[in-house]
Specification:
It is a single chain. It is built from 12 helices and 8 strands. By secondary structure, the chain is of the alpha+beta class. It has 2 domains: 112 residues; 89 residues, no CATH class. The radius of gyration is 19 Å and the shape is elongated.
Length: 217
């Protein structure tokens, strides 16, 4: 049995986690919000976060899968080994949910890739789908610039340049997998943004070329 008092989360000892998990299992959205804040605060995981993984696997809801992916993304390799059974269960559930999920599809797709071990961070890809922009610095001149996939441009305060989307058939690994999965599920917006994410941009300040995903992952 887990001694939650010996574990900690973002706000101290984790004695409150079992009650929060019980409430969350009853689809209490306030409890889910509190769990996110305590166990994956600004993307940071804690000892209590890892101990919660088997409990999240038992719930196997969309909220549980997303929170688990956030926790795993920030965890060391030992977490994947110790909680391999829970992660396997969560991944299977995530793959079941993916084709039938619309709202938040991009985060669930990213969660699948995290649980598979293909991504070691959460929200890097999905942010640009939800917020319709990525903010980076040019690797050549350090100028802050925005990647705006909805408009197909890279932009600074003074100028803009067109983006060049990737052809998924020329990609391999995570890029091809992400683009083709989104397209196969009819997620046209997600697929379009991902093609820009794995595509090329030009810095409007110095005209240097760069691969967007290389700057964000």
């Amino acid at each position: 049995m887990t001694d939650w008092s010996a574990l900690h989360h973002a706000y101290g000892t984790a004695q409150d986690v079992p009650a929060l998990l019980d409430r969350a299992s009853a689809d209490d959205q306030e409890a889910w919000s509190e769990l996110w804040s305590a166990l994956c605060h600004q993307g940071t995981s804690y000892t209590a976060s890892y101990a919660a993984l088997p409990h999240l696997a038992e719930m196997a809801s969309l909220d549980a899968v997303l929170l688990a992916a956030g926790i795993v993304a920030d965890g060391p390799d030992e977490v994947r080994t110790e909680h391999a059974a829970a992660i396997t269960t969560l991944l299977a559930r995530a793959n079941d949910l993916l084709p039938v999920t619309d709202d938040g599809y991009e985060y669930l797709l990213e969660g699948v890739l995290v649980l598979e071990g293909l991504l070691d961070q959460a929200d890097a890809m999905a942010w640009g789908v939800a917020e319709e922009e990525y903010e980076i610095e040019c690797p050549e001149c350090d100028t802050p610039m925005f990647i705006l996939p909805a408009k197909g441009i890279s932009k600074t305060a003074e100028a803009q340049r067109p983006l060049r989307p990737a052809d998924p058939t020329t990609l391999d690994g995570i890029g091809r997998r992400a683009c083709e999965t989104a397209a196969a599920h009819g997620q046209d917006k997600v697929a379009r943004v991902l093609r820009y994410f794995f595509g090329q941009a030009t810095c409007p300040a110095c005209d240097a070329g760069l691969t967007v995903s290389a700057e964000l992952l």
